[in-house]
Each structure stands twice: as structure tokens, then as C-alpha cells.
Amino acid sequence: MPARILGSTAILAGLAMAAPAAAETTLHILHINDLHSRIQPINRFDSTCPAEDDAAGECFGGVARIATAVDQIRGELEAAGENVLVLDAGDQYQGSLFFTTYRGAAAGEFMEAIGFDVMALGNHEFNNGPEGLLPLLDAVTFPVVSGNLDVSQDPALNGRVDDSVILDVNGIQVGIVSALTRDTMEISSPGDSVIFREEIDSLQGDVDALTEAGVDIIIALTHVGLPADIRIAEATTGIDVIVGGHSHTYLSADDPDRDGPYPLWISNPDGVMVPVVQAYAYSKYLGHLEVTFDDAGEVIYADGNTMLLDASVTPDEDIAARVAELAGPIEEAMGEIVGDTTEFIEGDRSVCRAMECSMGNLVADAMLDRVRDQGIQIAIANGGGLRASIDAGEVTMGEVFTVLPFQNTLATFQLTGAGVLAALENGVSQVEEGAGRFPQVSGLRFTWNASAEPGSRIVSVEVDMDGTWTALDPEATYGVVSNNFMRGGGDGYSVFANEAMNPYDFGPGLEEVAATYIGANSPYTPYTDGRIAQVE
User: Fold this and answer.
1) In the chain, N or C terminus with fewer CB closer than 10 Å?
2) What is the C-alpha separation between 125 and 105, in angstroms, rounded?
């Protein structure tokens, strides 16, 4: 494993004599991002895969397969005298009952066992507040970085998260800089003591400090999403490679179903081409980028691909056994059958963050059904709260938890029609970014125009008033149900936090509400009905 030399606080003082990279230095970067607590293998819908399906060769990923792939590739390369780094671009947290049960300690344990060299913080690492990072930080010995954060005012994190880090890889000094999306302030729970700085300015400052210290090879390990990574590459100088996460983008060198090429080449302000990579999410792929640098640390070659971790990759026996041990207390409860669905329920992020989806209808309908007798007419759920799809057939509690892993609870309140309109405008304001605020609704239908400016995209809104669709009245007051995260202003829904009347955290978890609704309507038939329409 590469040696960690110094964190950012000592770069200038301690590394002024840093040696340049040797001529034609080659570095192999193995990387994952957005594992989202998929400690166990996943099925083709990114949900936890039953053991019998895994045994039948129908599953992907899981930390035991990551371990096998990393050990094999790293071992072969190091035996041949090659230089290897293993990087994680963030969001180990949130997505299965492993996180709900072990609060990050399991993630840290398995990352340490696999032998990661550096991890960047993701937004979900803050889901349980700054102190929620401690189970992971306490379990790992490698550096965790996030360069645009000032954590000095937070007692839990002060001194625990580096701005940047320099690694000694067989005598070659490699600088790692990092940035975390500032949306974390809205989509997670970092609290007031964690200060977020602008990503590009922060990265450029850290790169300049490393360059002044004599570090020629600099990798940006980011959790901002591919569109932001492209903007970073276009606006900064001195970054040689960007390894990213957050947008769950599947880059591939050869798969026709890819989201883009691997690597994606972007020109920086000096005309230097910067390779950008990402490896989807949920442990399904391992990225492997080979980069060659000249003696000035400039990239002269980069190539690679994402490796599918399917049944051909044998899980590491020791790690698989430890996963099974930790899964024991979870599996009995999660194996409970809550109902049946006649068809596949679409919960993919690319759909539910951009348009009406059948999972969004299921969850919003279930929310409204639970509180309709309290005078509630409208349900609004954030598409980003839906984390997986469900296949046709029996539905287990574990599958429902995988779809709704955040332990959000129902929250009811009253809101004016003008406030409802403002909420919907917020919901469709960042569709181009794939933002999780996209509104999935029940008891309400709306039409929106994607080509209009954000803030003026909603064309029409109607509310189901006792069986009659009625135009939204800005002056009227409506009963609304959402979740406690949105109710507190999460995902940009500040109108809920600031203008809600008689707010009440009703209590039941969304996963329980959805499971009960599926059971009461079993066999459940998924559907879309045009409640969200788009015009040009």
C-alpha cells in the first residue's frame, strides 16, 4: 500500500524538496464510487440479491467480489513492478440495512480489509450528522479527504478529514485533492459547523499548493457528479486525472449501453486533455485506469475500462464469511414477505429524477393513503429518496428497505397553493443535473416545461378535491404529506421549512408505510397515469 506522507496542513512546510516523477511513470488507478452500503451482492435492479440467486450466478458486486478483483489486479501489477492506487470517490453510506444496522462501521471494516488508499467523502456520509462519520473514520487507517470543507469548527471531525494528501507510490509522489458537492448542505445533514467552500476555487488552491511543493502528479478524487467534474476539468489547471462519483455514471470503453466513454477526455484552460472516469455505483463495476506521465508529470497516455463484477468473479472467502456473519441478525427480518407485485416496479434514478415513475407513484400513493383521513390532499416525495427498483413477484421487507433506506418518516402540514407551486418549481429546477429533488406526487397532477428557466417551469397544477380535479388556488390552504427530510428543507424544499403551517412529524417510516400499502393492495399492479406531464 502506498505510504501516506503528509496531509494538506503540512504540504508547503514539509514537501518543498519533493522529487519529480521519473520519466514515463505509469500509474494504475483502481476505483469505485457510490457503493451505497451494497455490502452484499446485488441483483440486476441494484437491490440486495438473495443468497440462492447468488449461488445460481445471477448476482453482481458486493464487497467480497470487490476484494477479489482488487487483490487479483493489484497483485499481478505489483508483481510486475507497476504502481497501483485503490481509490473510493465517496458515498459508502446509506442504501441497505447494513448501514441502518452498523452505522458505517461495517463499511469501514471492509474498506480497510480490501486495502483502499484514499477515500473522498460523499454527501451521504453526512446523513447521520458529522458525528455519524466516526464509525467509518475509526475503522480505517487510510486518509479520508474533502478539500472544499472546513471541519475545524466541528469537534467530531476536526483533524480527522484532510483537504488533500500526498502518497508515496514506490518513490513517486502522487497528490490527491478532493471536493464534495455543496448540495450536501441541502440533501444531507452536515450541520452548521461544517463549512462548504466553492468547489473549483478550492480545488485550484489545493492543486497550486501541491504544485508549489514539487508534486507533479495530481489526481482529483471528487464527489460532485460528472457534469461538475467536466466543469472542474474545463476551469482548473494542474489536475492530471479526475476520478469521480455522485452521478452514478456508467463510463465504459466498449459497452454500447454506456453513459459515456472511459475515460472521458476534457480540455483544460491550457488545452491539456484531462481524463475523467467514474464507475457507475452499488459495487457493480470496478474501474481500472492506466495513466502514463512524462518526466514533467504531464499525462501522455491514459486508457482503461470498467470491469463488471459478475458471477465470473469469485467472492473472497474470508470477506464473504464476515459479510454472512454480520448479515445474520438482519436477514430474518428482511426475508419477511410483505406482498406481491404483478410487474416490475421502476425505481431507477434516471427515470424517477426526471419524470413520473411507477415507484414514485407507489410511494406517494402509500403516503397519501396513510394520512388522507387527517385532511391531507397532496403527497410530494423526492425522487432521490427512491434508491432501487423491485422485480415482479414476491416483495420482501429487504427489497422495500433497499428502495427506501433513509429511515425517513411521514410529516404532515398545511401549505398555501402558492407554497405548493413553489415546491413544485423547486422540484423541477435541477432536472438537467439529475438532482434528487424531482417531485413524485399523489393527489395532484402537474404539467411542466423543461425548456423554460428554472423557477418558471410549472405550466399547470390540479388537485384532486374529493374526486374532482380542480386548478390549484394560490390563496387556498392544502393539507400536504411529505417526509421529515423534505419537511426540514432538504433537497431545496425550503418552502416546507419556512411556510408550513401546523407541521407534525406523523412518525411511521416510509419503508413501513410502503410495505403496508403493498400488502393491503397485494397483488399490487404498478402503473403510471400521466399525473406528471411535460410540454415543450
Assistant:
1) C
2) 12
